[in-house]
Amino acid sequence: MKIILLIFFATRCFSTELMDEIDQILLEFEAQRQNNKPVNTESEFANNNENVVDNNNLFNVPKNTECTDECVPFYQCNENGSIITTGENLIDIRSNDGPCGNAFLSCCKLEFVTNQRFSPNKPASSSCGHRRPDGIGLRITGTQNEAQFAEFPWMVSIIKSGWSPVSNPRPACGGSLIHPRAVVTAAHCVINRSQRWKVRAGEWDINRTIEPIPYQEVDVHTVVIHNAYYPGALFNDIALLYLVSPIKLVENTGTICLPPQDYRHKKNRCYSTGWGKDKFGKQGKYHDILKKIDLPVVTNTHCQSSLRKTRLGRLFQLHSSFMCAGGEKDKDACNGDGGGPLACPIDGKENRYYQAGIISWGVGCGEENVPGVYTDVAKFRYWIDDTMRRFNLDTTSYTVDD
């Protein structure tokens, strides 16, 4: 057992699933050391206050310790000997690892044939944020968490140039249309990867062509990453994609509204959307049809307190560029959903929504009392507006009309 722990410590490079296993190993090892028997239930630890730290299930420091600083789990200590308070290397990024099982590997296909399909001519609403709860054209019933066709017309999938469901059955990330030529997504989705991206607007079922109105696929011309983006802990996790040609706004495509700068999110329920997994880990399955999850917005104070009870530790600090939603069992964004929107209802406007957040990261998926973490879009409205003007694009396409 000691050899295993030393190997873990020497590598200092862990998957988040492995860290959960490390916590369990530490618990079992300490139980065997003290009692010479395995511990089978958490209740045995709960009754031993001298040996247990409630916030992350690790043992307290013995009274005769020589440590003059803070004793924390070794994976919460960086190479300089300082405590990691940002969650760096401990969080679960919501992007798709792909069929190779690793975010740094790509499954490539030499040839790609584009389906030729015609776009309808019926225009969509000229204003932003219109959700269609009943969809259009066809309706699915009796399914769990599946969106209706064109229910969220701002939702787009972001794919690599040359992508097909055969070469890689999942998009790289999600995004949202804010202008016929602009998409907002998470920076972690499009940084340190090939700049050759495509956007699909009006997509619904990513593996079958059953939609009554076809999707539109457009090349990305320019990727703009926020200049303060920090990939280690995903601070300022936002990017804008400028498209080669405009998306035609028809019945299954439309823009989402953006909140004013520094808008305060109220305690209401919002929707996250994407084609990601339904649960964390190997048992989770990706969705073919766009899924929707309704989630409560939680305050950053509550969110930070909840996250400190996870492997992030009691000193974790939630960065000001984030907001949080969720914390209900089995209801969460997950791997493969990254970059997609968290859409919240606009007060006084029926079935109108603004984008409150961008799916960024979490600790596992769907754990009770563990909210998911989103980029707070309201913190970046000025940046978005300024970037749009650089490309000579107006901002009325995502501004709520009075």
UniProtKB/TrEMBL annotation:
The lineage of its organism: Eukaryota, Metazoa, Ecdysozoa, Arthropoda, Hexapoda. It is found in: Secreted. GO terms for molecular function: serine-type endopeptidase activity. CDD domains: Tryp_SPc (cd00190). It comes from the Eukaryota. GO terms for biological process: proteolysis. Residues 140-389 form the Peptidase S1 domain. Residues 1-15 form the signal peptide. InterPro entries: Peptidase_S1_PA, Peptidase_S1_PA_chymotrypsin, Peptidase_S1A, PPAF-2-like_Clip, Trypsin_dom, TRYPSIN_HIS. PANTHER family: LP15124P-RELATED, SERINE PROTEASE-RELATED. Keywords: Disulfide bond, Secreted, Signal. One of its GO terms (cellular component) is extracellular region. The keyword Signal applies. This is Phenoloxidase-activating factor 2.
